[in-house]
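ARCHIVE RECORD
Type: protein–small molecule complex
Small molecule: uracil
Source of inputs: curated submission
Record status: active
Notes field left blank by submitter.
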Amino acid sequence: MELIKETKRLEKYLVECGIGSRREIKKYVHEGRIKVNGEITLDERIHIDEKFHKVTFNDRKLEKKILRYYMLNKVSGYITAMKDTNGKKTVKDLLPSFLDTRGLSPIGRLDKDTEGLLIFTNDGNLSKMIASPDNNCSKVYYVELDREITDEDIINLQNNVKIDDYICKAAKVEKITSKSINLTITEGKYHQVKKMIKAMDNKVNYLKRIKVSKLELGDLKFGEIKEIKIEDII
Ligand code: URA
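STRUCTURE (tokenized, with ligand):
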């Protein structure tokens, strides 16, 4: 039998194993932490064939990780954590018991009383990419307000609101009614939407995330989870 050689760059293979971003991988290779067939390699651009080459990281054999992605319509009353914290209900309690949750984490945080779109994955690179403000990844929130929003509030919200000591990046506001808006932000600071609205002397009465990057919550029912593909998100 003749074996067909299927080569790929070491760097690409290491990304598929989920050990880090391209930049981190380059660093690991240059630090001599990657071995191919027992030999340290200092060049991430070499080509390897998974059938013939044994690749190790810190002397541990690497396995290709099956990357998984899920979307949940979070309901109010659950904290965004995968571990029970003092008996409080967590989003893990919303996941079906048959789902293998090992390695899965939510991307970003929603407050206990916030509802809507929460993505779970074991793909650390995607989590970092979505969370990093440098990547301008949009998150859209449907916000119900305590008092009517003025045109001046809308202009202010769109133009670098100051919360605590932080100047927010430009946001986008779509007015729905006099007391409700869709707010698009590209960061994920702690309580960011609530603080931005507070800076307008207003208050959030209800908050739901309806979109992250390309992925829309759509008609997913409350508490429901659905398996998705990375292409649905970015
Ligand atoms: N901003 C908030 O204030 N709360 C959330 O849950 C998400 C964004």
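CURATOR ANNOTATION: Helices lie at 10-16, 22-30, 124-131, 151-158, 192-198, 230-233.
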